[in-house]
UniProtKB/TrEMBL annotation:
Residues 37-167 form the MOSC domain. Pfam families: MOSC, YiiM_3-alpha. SUPFAM superfamilies: PK beta-barrel domain-like. The lineage of its organism: Bacteria, Pseudomonadati, Pseudomonadota, Gammaproteobacteria, Alteromonadales. This is MOSC domain-containing protein. It comes from the Bacteria.
Amino acid sequence: MNKTWVNRISGLYLGDQVQMHNGVASGMNQKHAATQLTVQFDRVVGNSEADPKHHGGLDRVLHHFPREHYGQYRRWDLMSSFKDAPSMGENISTVGVNESLVNIGDIVQIGDVTLQVTQPRSPCFKLNVQFDQPKFALAMQESRMCGWFYRVLSEGVIRPSDSICLIERKTDISIAKAMQIYFLPEFDAEQYQTLLACEGLAQSWVESLQRRLAQQSIEDWAMRLYGKAS
């Protein structure tokens, strides 16, 4: 399989500064346009995360976010002011490929870098702060317009002129479907097993689903979505 998702990247972004915003440490507003991304197995050179526990790591080296989603969030009045890439903290911005077209485990070629799709972005309360909307993270969770993460299979350089090509499909579960399953309001062991069977799924999601199955319950999402316990 060799299918071109995007002929040309809309933007590449990175940043290693952390900013305090309403008492919350975040690197989202510190991302800036880059002429290229130097991609290593464990990081993008010059890029870092404010919260390494929940962001970054081998399964989340690069964050890809569809640029057209900004327009939809604006139409939903979920942005208090005009925002565009890279306000989500993304490294790669494109037009033309979205969560319904990208599957867990997809092997992707960008320039001389080979990547694998690992998980959707799990929206957290920092998005509420970023966009001054108390339920922005919940809206992203429910709409599944979240973007996705990659692990690195071969290192190299990504440039704006590069195309993005799907070279191998490992599963039939899209990013949108993975979001739907993972954030089901009710416990569903069968659906969790379906997602767990996806080759390439991020280890943190694997462990979370296994924990749910062991406990026969869903964890409380209030702290992640709102920054406070329910």
